[in-house]
Amino acid sequence: MSNLEQTLSIIKPDAVERNLSNEIKKEFIKNDFQILKEKKIQISKIEAEEFYKIHQTKPFYNDLCDYLSSGPIIVMVLEKNSAVSENRKLMGATDPNKAEPGTLRKKYGISIDKNSVHGSDSVENAKIEIDFFFKN
Ligand code: UDP
Ligand code: MG
Q1: Domains of the chain
Q2: What's the rounded Cα separation, in Å, for the pair 64 and 58?
Q3: Ligand 2: distance of its center to the CA of 32 in Å?
Q4: What's the mean pLDDT when you consider all of the chain?
Q5: Structure confidence by residue, pLDDT tens digits, 59-76
Q6: 55 annotated active-site
Q7: What are the residues whose beta carbon lies below 5 Å from ligand 2 (ion)?
Q8: pTM score
Q9: What is the atom index within ligand 1 of the atom nearest the CA of 94?
């Protein structure tokens, strides 16, 4: 049974800045994700606020939006069977210190805020996030 899904992945500023993008992209490919779309961009704080609006009541919201808009990012549409949960598994826990060995956040993350990658958390949010970056 196939359950082909698409999910949105972001290589965050801390990883782009450390030139880890190619290494991280290879990890996706090695784990059987297809990179259907990809672009390197820098977003504004207003765009970051829109992207992360589900977190607007959280204490870390302002810093998070400053951070995501602080430098270039790579946004990608990834495809695989169960892509949403498979990507979350590959990324590991939000806090790199709590992430499983072998996960992207364990390998590359610096801290809970500079945790190198974003991945959609549900099929529904994946659609919204893919549209946010790739509509038109
Ligand atoms: N974040 C943070 N402090 C926290 C929790 C989260 O800076 O205490 C940041 C972190 O970079 C995370 C992002 O906010 O990736 C979104 O949080 P979420 O809970 O959605 O984690 P994720 O889905 O990225 O694992
Ligand atoms: Mg999240």
Answers
A1: 4-40+73-134 (3.30.70.141)
A2: 10
A3: 22
A4: 98
A5: 999 999 999 999 999 999
A6: no
A7: 121
A8: 0.98
A9: 25
